[in-house]
Structures are given as C-alpha cells and as structure tokens.
Amino acid sequence: MPPTDTSHPDYYHRVVDCQWACPAHTDVPEYIRLIAQGRFTDAYMVNRATNVFPGILGRVCDRPCEPACRRSRVEDKPVAICRLKRVAADHKDDYSAQLPKIPATKNGKHVACVGAGPASLTVANDLLPLGYRVTIFEQFGEPGGLMRTNIPSFRLPQSVLDEEIGTIVAMGADLKLNHPVKSMKELLGRGGFDAVFVGSGAPKGKELNLPGRQEGAANIFIGIDWLESVAFEHVKQIGREVLIIGVGNTAMDCCRTSLRLGAKHVKVMARKPRQFFKASAWELDDAEEESVEIIVNRAPKHFVIENGRLTGMQFDVMEYEFDARGRIVAERVTGEEFFAADDVILAIGQENAFPWIERDLGIEFDKWSVPKVDETTFESSRPGVFFGGDAAFGPKNIIWSVEHGHQAAISIHRHCQGEAVTERLAPGVNLQSRKMGMHEWSYSNDYNPVERRLMPHVSLKERFKKLNIEVELGFTAEQAAAEVQRCLNCDIQTVFEAKLCIECDACIDICPTDCLTITADGEEAELRTRLRAPAKNLDQPLYVSAPLVQTGRVMVKDEDLCVHCGLCAERCPTAAWDMQKSYVAWPHAEDQPPKCQPSLPKIA
Amino acid sequence: MTFIPKPKVRHPSLPRNALGLTRRDYEGVLSTLCAGCGHDSITAALTEAIWGLSLEPQNIAKLSGIGCSSKTTAYFVSGAHGFNSVHGRMPSIAMGASAANRNLAYVGVSGDGDTLSIGLGQFCHAIRRNLNMLYVIENNGVYGLTKGQFSASADIGSRAKKGEENQQPPIDPVLLAMSLGASFVARSFSGDKAQLVPLLQAGLRHRGFALIDVLSPCVTFNDHEGSTKSYAYTREHYEPAVNADFVPFEREIVADYAEGETHPVVMHDGSRILLRKFAKDYDPTDRVAASGYIQERLRQGEYLTGLLYIDETQREFHEVNGTPDAPLNGLHLPALSPGSMGLEKILSRYR
Questions:
Q1: Which strands make up the sheet holding A554-558, listed edge to edge?
Q2: Exposed end of chain A (fewer CB within 10 Å): N or C?
Q3: B4 contacts A439? CB cut-off 8 A
Q4: B232 interfacial to chain A (CB closer than 8 Å)
C-alpha cells in the first residue's frame, strides 16, 4: 500500500469516530475532557461553536456519534455522549462574555430567513457577528420550528428552547413572529434582501388514504399536526384506546404524549419486524418503559367505522422472508386482525412542501416538487436563494439542520461579498503534542473499564401528572464523573515518524489491543490477513508508514480498536510515536477568506 | 521504563488456545526495563510461544539469576512458579527443581553476564547433564544493570557508549554449548519474532537442554554506532541459516513445502520441527560440520541464526539417572525414605 497520507485533513478527523459521524463535527472528546475537569461553561462553548444548541441537542439529538463511538467496538456500549452534552448545558455558568461580539456598525447586507427552526437560527447565529442584518419570518407565535411543535415538552422543556433561541435573538436577529410567508414572489419583490434562506422544514405529515379515512376523520390525526396542536394547547385530551400507525421517532412522541393526555392503552402498530424500525433504540426503550405496546407485522387495511364513529382498525397479519443479509425478500399476508381504538394517530413520515413558492421565480423543482438544491452550497437554481434543514433534502434531524445552516451561512456570506459560493475554505487539521515530560501526558490515558451509566428517570407514578414534566433527570455528579472516564480520547492521535523507528517492537508488545504490526508491505486486503489481531472491520482504515530505515518493512496500525492509551509512545525509545491532539478546523462563515484554495478530494 | 501499566482491555476477537486462553492471559507484571529493550521483545515472544503451546501456567517453572535479563521472568505468565536465584546460580536451582519434579516445563532466562561470566561453570554442567529445560540467554554484550561495562560476549573492537574499545575475545555461548555436547542449540534475535517464537516452542518441547542465544540489543548502553550488538548492526550481520517451523503433535502439517526443501525432525512427543535450510551446505544434525560453519561465518562477522544444531536422540538427565517417573512429592514416604531398618541394610553392605 502507499504510505498513508496523514496530511490529508480527513485522515485524523476520521479516527475521531464521533466527530466524523457528527454532521456538525463537534469536538466531542475535547468537551468531555472539559467536563471531566469541571469546566462546564467551556465544554458548553466547545459544543456551541459547532452545534449551536447544546442544551436542546443534549436531550433530543439523534446521536449519530454514539453508534460510531469506538468504545462500542471495544466493549458493547458507546460513551453516553449526548447525556454528557446535557451535563455541560445543565451546569454551565453565564457564558455571555464568550459569545461573539456583534458589531455596532452593520455591513449593509440584509438576509431574510423563512421559518425560525434550527437551520434559520444557525444562519442568524453565524451571520450576525459578521455585521449582517437578519430577519426571520415565523408563522407561529413562538420560534423553534419542529423543535417546539413536534418534540413534546416532557422530552425538551420549553425553558431550554427559550434560553438557547433567546441567545441568538439577543444577538440582534429581527424575529418576526406570526409572520407566515405566503408568497416567495412577494418576499423577493419586496426588495432590500441580499439573500433569502428557506428553513421552513418538512411540515407536511403523510396521509394514509384507506377506506374509512373520511368517515372517521374526527378521530384520525396526522402525527406532526397533532403534536403541534398539543404543543400550542389546542388539544388537551385523547381517547382511552389509541393506535399509533408507524414506528419512527414521531410515533414515539405521539404514543408517549397520548399517555399524558388520558390514554390508557396505547399500541404502536408496525408493518415490519423490529430490526426495521426507524425510531432510535432509546426512544423505543423509553416508550416501552411507559407500557406502550409495540405490535409488529401488522399492515393497516382499513379504518372500522360503526354508527359514524371510529371504533378501530383492521390489519393484515404479515409474514416475511429474509436473505442472509437480513433483507426482506418476500412477504405474504397470513390473516387479518382487528384492533379497537377511540383515536388513531398517523405517524408514517413527513415531507417538505412549498405551496408558497411560485414556480416562475427561477427556483427549479424536480418532479416530486422538491427544490433543486446544491448539496455543498445549499443554493437553489436562483442565485441568492438558499435552502437548508428539512426544507432542503427532506426530513433529517436537528443536528443536520444546524450543519445545513452553517454551510448555507458560508454561501450567503460569500454571495453577499460577491465571491463564488462554490469556492469555500477547505477543512484542516492541526496537531499538538500531548507529551509533558517523562511518563507524563496531558490527558487521562488510563483505560477505565466502568460501564455506561444509565439516565435516571422521573418515576412512572409522577411523570404522567403533567404534560411537561421532563422525564430524564440528567446525570448526577457521580454518574457524569464516571461516564467521562469512558471516553477513549480518540482525538489524541498516535502520530508516527517512520525515520525515527529502530524496529525494537516495544510498541507492538505493549499495545493492549494489538493494533500494531511491523511487516512487509502488501496490498490492503492481503496485508489485513497478516496483522497481529484480526482486522476485519473494513470501515476502519489501516495506517501504513513509509518504509522503515533498518529493514524496509512498514509499520501498520489498524485504527479500529486503538484505545489511545498512548503506551506505544510511552514505550518508544526514540519518540517515533507521539500522542498529539488533533484540532479539526471545520470552517464556518466567520473563517472564510476572500479567496479559497480548492478542497482536496474526499478521502477514500 | 514506564509507570503506566498495560490496561486490561483487549482486542475482542483475539485468538484463543486449546485452553480457551488468549495471549493476554499469559502476560506478567509491568516491565521496569528501559523502553525499547530487546528483553521485552523476548518476553513477548515467550508469552506468545507458551500461549501457542497451550501450556498450563501452573505447570511452568520460571528460573533466573541476576541482571536485567533475570528480571524478565516476572514479566510473563504470572500464574507460573518462579525462582530468582543468586547470580549465575540459576542452573543449580533448575537442576534441583527438575530432579524433584520432572513434570514441570522449566524456562530459564539469563543474560550474557549471568551465564558467561559469574555463572559459566554452572551453565557448562547443566549442558553436560542435558538438564531438561529451555535456557534463554538474553545477550546484549554489556552489563546494563551496572551502567554498560563490556560483558564476556562483547566482540573485539566493539565500542562502548563513551568510546572505549573492547580488546578481549568474546565467549560464544553457541559454540561453547556445541563443544560441550548440547542437544539443542539455536541463535536468534529479539527483533525477529517470526523466527524466535517457533524456536522457543521447539526448545520447550525438546527433551533435554535447549539453549537459545538471543541477541537482544541494550537500547540504553549498546545501541550506538560502533556497537556490534545494536539493532542496526545485528540486522546487517544477521544471517538465518535454518528456518525452523515448529509443528505441535496435535496439528497437521498444512503449509505447502516443496519436496526436498524441508527436513522434518520428529521430537520425542511426536511434534515435528520442519527445518528449511538457507545455506545449502549447512547440516544442523552434524555437530562438527555445523560448528565449523558457524565459526567460518563468525570470522566474517556474520551471526548465523536459526536452529543451528539438534539431536533428539540424546538422553536427558532423568533417563541417564533412572529416576522415577512421578515427582518426588507424589511418592509415598516409604519409597522416599528407606527407614532405619532399610538404612541399616544399606550400611551393612559397606561394612
């Protein structure tokens, strides 16, 4: 194999699995270390720099970081990254002094944002410190978008939303509540805006047009609309028996909300077996803890109406065949079953919808009425009009919306400064040694075998008394202190200098997870079979050094299970190995120079 | 050295031996040797070799004398028996232990000082008696524990760290052992585990005295230019003569060896050593020719390595002396002690 090019900014970035998996590239190990030191405000600010809403995301993030966490490969459970984010948010002090300064003199550019959800708020967060005027149009009386209307308050308290949104509004965003944008033509025609950002989300819940839908309409609800009505207290109760159709995260919010509005028996009806569920594992767990019944292999057939009133639903009982990789290859109906219900909630997906964007404005849509948006610049086919969040590519999650907002802000900034939006500052990585002296490293490199801490919950008796009792209590001090020790510090990189190596094998002998091998070079597939321990995880790269001085063999490191204990560097007599902290520079609007170097191609 | 112990976490799919143990289960305590010491590599090779043979830790006895090398018995197989003897006296202790219990696997680890200076006499007699043990010399040419004076294995002309040149001829443990009639003689290098591990396994299974002289650079006092036992010098002047693949009795020979290329040696327990010669004229079963060839190569400054001599037919200590099969602690008291009546009978023979 050619020697690994560690100067490519992606190489060390990818080693930090959580940061690589995070759409916003939050420096997770860094903030976990700050929490370990009790520096909660600093930990919060490390988060805020990339994900903008640490308190919100510390509760309801989709957590792409956690399945990626190396700890889950070394043991079976990842570090409770999301819970620790909340620890930082819960215990921070006043951070106003650390927020970017808003210039008194504006730069004369004015940006309009449609919808006050996470994407638009991120655009405002990035552009206000650069002197932009930002006006956000919001249809409802409160900002937050789906974070407020669709996530129930027992999962995300309003006070947390208000605080983190308030921080951005306080930077000088001109928030126009109860201002639905009814016409893009009118908005553009109004003049005065140098750019428009559409962050209006995916507000249209999918319909289930089966027999009986019209007759039973009074007791059949679209999940996201129903949650919105609950959030704004237009709906305060529901029947005793409730069926939820669909098994995504919205379904989980619907079933648990139903229990708080008076339902006694709630069943979530799934068409497929459990391994195909879209809901996050922890949301399923939380729903089942509250005695929600999840029934698999039932496909909706029709609504059952008696005397003009919904009494339940008829389902086909399904059976599936799988191939070796677990994919469904055949399905058949083996029978029918009736489930009684007073109310049915449909939670089978949502879409973006733009009835308010006229089709003659140069903003192109595809045949599914989805706008054509550039995946890097987030610009539509009309220069100066940008999309982000669920509005851009359909429903994803909050953390993706935030990253879309960051990227769109870069484009808006460049657009307003008359620069090409396609020329963007490339990401980079900086390294800094963590060696302090003999046997001293400035990070906690001791592997702690402690198991993942469990989030304490409000008791099942208490939690249903009010809709907005937050179920998760947050980690205790002891739990946080234990959980931070589980982080493997993957950002403290093992950096190898081939010309210093004397091939004494010390690093190979001491490596607790047998990551290292000195061997003859070869093609990757074949090389993987000659390593000290099986290197079967092809998602994780091999590091291959330049030929070593004495024998011409190469140092190979399988990145898969390195626990970053630093013993290779500690045992190395010539300091050929060093432990160096990687700082991933993931550029935002404020970092953009007038002219940019083209980005390197993505790492294979 | 380091003060940071190796964490207990391990690779989740490490291979397991016949006892269901991984090589991590055969480790010892934290090494206090210098970082980069060849001895630590030999320790790792011993761990690997013993794990690979699926030896039960309680059936192993680790013996050593004094010196950097002699500390290393603590660094592998924590569950084994261990004895740190007086300087150079490890062979006596091994002798006594083996006489009392022939069923343990004896692993002696010594250094060039412990073996070739203070313990030379003991070393020679252990070979003469063909004591059933693996005797590893961690040979670095210096007294590392006393700050790097030349040892008895230092080559003429080799330079110390501060520049002085060694004038006295070295004792070569390999040639010495062959002249004393040793039945298993090998040389290897701490930086070549592919060679060392099978040699250690063969040595452990050999019935009789198995000597492996392992060149093991002293990273602190003897790894500079001018040294003839540095990593770089050893790699340049290191010539594998015979490749020895050890195949335990339990395993079929699966590797694909061309006819005539390999020469199998069947060991007493049915295990085989597959010898593959790199030097065409070299015969590791011909003592005289082999030692001539080794001396020839030494004169040209090359260390011949691999399994240099083997004789599986030679009788070891217990066979020569007709000792009982069972360990002494397993015998009934009457068998061990003749009693006063029996003693009287024996004495009367000499009256």
A1: A516-519, A554-558, A542-544
A2: C
A3: yes
A4: yes
Contacts of B190 in chain A (CB under 8 A): 504-505
Note the pLDDT tens digit of each residue in A424-480. Answer: 999 999 999 999 988 889 998 889 999 999 999 999 999 999 899 999 999 999 999
Domain harbouring B140, CATH code: 3.40.50.970
A99-203+352-416 CATH fold = FAD/NAD(P)-binding domain (3.50.50)
Closest approach of chain A CAs to the CA of B89, in angstroms?
A: 29
Range of the structural domain that residue B284 is part of: 26-328
Q: How far apart are CA A319 and CA A334, in angstroms?
A: 7
* Residue-wise pLDDT tens digits, B24-63: 999 999 999 999 999 999 999 999 999 999 999 999 999 9
CB contact under 8 A, B44 and A509: yes
- Alpha helices, DSSP H only, in A210-360? 223-231, 249-260, 281-289
Q: Hey, are the CB atoms on A74 and B35 less than 8 Å from each other?
A: no
In A61-100, the residues whose Cβ lies within 8 Å of chain B are 73-74
Minimum distance, in Å, between the CA of residue B111 and any CA atom of chain A: 18
ipTM at complex level? 0.89
Q: From the CB of residue B348, how many other CB atoms can be counted at a distance below 10 Å?
A: 8
**pLDDT digits over A33-71, tens only?**
999 999 999 999 999 999 999 999 999 999 999 999 999
Instruction: End-to-end CA distance of chain A: give it in Å, rounded.
Output: 13
Q: For B9, which of A513, A572, A574 is closest by C-beta distance?
A: A513
Q: In this complex, do B7 and A572 lie within 8 Å of one another by their Cβ atoms? A: no
- Weakly modelled stretches of chain A, pLDDT under 50: none
Task: Please state, in angstroms and rounded to a whole number, the distance separating the CA atoms of residues A584 and A13.
Answer: 6
Task: Identify the helix (H) or strand (E) that includes residue A221.
Answer: strand A220-222
Closest chain A residue to the Cα of B76, Cα to Cα: A509
Rounded to two decimals, the pTM is 0.90
Mutate: best of A502, A511, A574, partner B, most B CBs <10 A: A502
Strand A435-437 and strand A440-441: the pairing is antiparallel
Q: Among A506, A512, A566, select the one facing B9 at the smallest CB separation.
A: A512
How far off is chain B from A474, nearest CA to CA, in Å? 29
Which tokens sit at A157? 């308290």
Per-chain mean pLDDT for chain A? 94
DSSP, res A118: H
Instruction: Report the residue of chain A nearest B3, measured CA to CA.
Output: A439
CATH classification code of A492-585: 3.30.70.20
Contact between B191 and A508 using a beta-carbon 8 Å cutoff = no
Q: CA B186, CA B204: separation in Å to the nearest integer? A: 12
Confidence of residue B276 (pLDDT cuts 50, 70, 90): confident
Number of domains observed in the structure of chain B: 1
Could you tell me the fold of the domain covering A205-348? Answer: FAD/NAD(P)-binding domain (3.50.50)
Q: In a 3-state reduction of DSSP, which class is residue A342?
A: coil
Give kind and range of the element (H or E) at residue A331.
Answer: strand A328-340
Distances A168 to A53, A101, A164, A355, A575 between C-alpha atoms, Å = 10, 12, 7, 29, 47
Of B8, B14, B34, the CB nearest to A449: B8
Tokens of residue A404, six digits: 């879309």
